Amino acid sequence: MIGPQKRVLLVDDEEDLTWTLSKKLSKDSDKFELITVNSGREAIEVLNQVPVDLVITDVRMPEVSGLDLLVKIKETYPQTKVIIMTAYGSSDVHKAATERGCFHYIEKPFEINEIRQLILDALKEERGFRGSVADFQLSDIIQLNCLGRLTTALRVRRQNETGTIYFQEGNIVHAETDRLEGEEAFYYIMSWDGGEFSVLRNQFPPRETIHKSWQNLLLESLRLKDEQSHLVQEEQEREKRKRQRRLQQLLDKVFKSEGVEHIFIHTHAGFPIFYLGRFSGNVDRVSELGDRLGDLISGIENATRNVFGKEILFWEGIFRKHIYLFIALPEEDAYLSVIGTPRMNTGFVRLEIKKQLRAIVSLIANQSL
Question: I need a surface site. Which of 42, 122, 152, 340 has the fewest CB within 10 A?
Fold first, then answer.
């Protein structure tokens, strides 16, 4: 709930605009107090006298521009959020505002309801730097500390690991984990994809081990993470191909037996995991077959559940031109389906699959094939 103690400062050298916005936003006086000024210098005077939760400022103003005001706010009042508005929208202005810690960016002309909603959304946000790394980019939090020239520490936790990055007057001067320190520790922390973070105010570094600029550190961390991502992806692809080859070896005897046309491992919904058959190499036909088998299995399960009250583990159906059987793989959302002609020896197929079932399940367990 937004309380009346929230304070918003509107800065624009166009008096008509500040007067109009002040009048239009007056109906929200129960939610926030609005102060309007017509220059960056006046805005700084207000900020020096009273706490302000949100500043909305134009970019092009005489003496003190909106971007200069943004930098000043981030240096002196890092918890105050800033929304930049301008009639001269460009990617350069947007980038400059974002790099300086802008909360949001809006181009003129805008609807009154649009700016009103931005204000309400900004005021609903909690102050401070506690949260989930999954919700924020860790690099954004680091930039904010550097642009604000803060002396602080950023503590990051994931699973059983903890890392800390130390800032001194906006410079990254030290980083450490349980096993590493310095640049190596910084790059390692930046490689983490998730966790929890918190900022420790006025926390001084125990020593200085990093001397690169924070911009270079961030660029290098992104390069290393991208490089590592490619290596991980290549390794995953190698493992995937290896598992596919092993599955083919396990099921090759069944596939080469008389009458077998398709061997298909798929999820309950029919998403393909492994396939051998006439449609090999045709992704669309395999996907279409998976959809149909998923629908068929769901129908069979619903019918048998109403009769027996249990999930079906095995089913075999004989049709005029085909035989179809499926086996639910233990502990997995997956099924092994076999489709063949009436000449298919289902007893042999079931026996061979039973022999290899444990190995098949271990290959697909928690794996994306």
Answer: 42
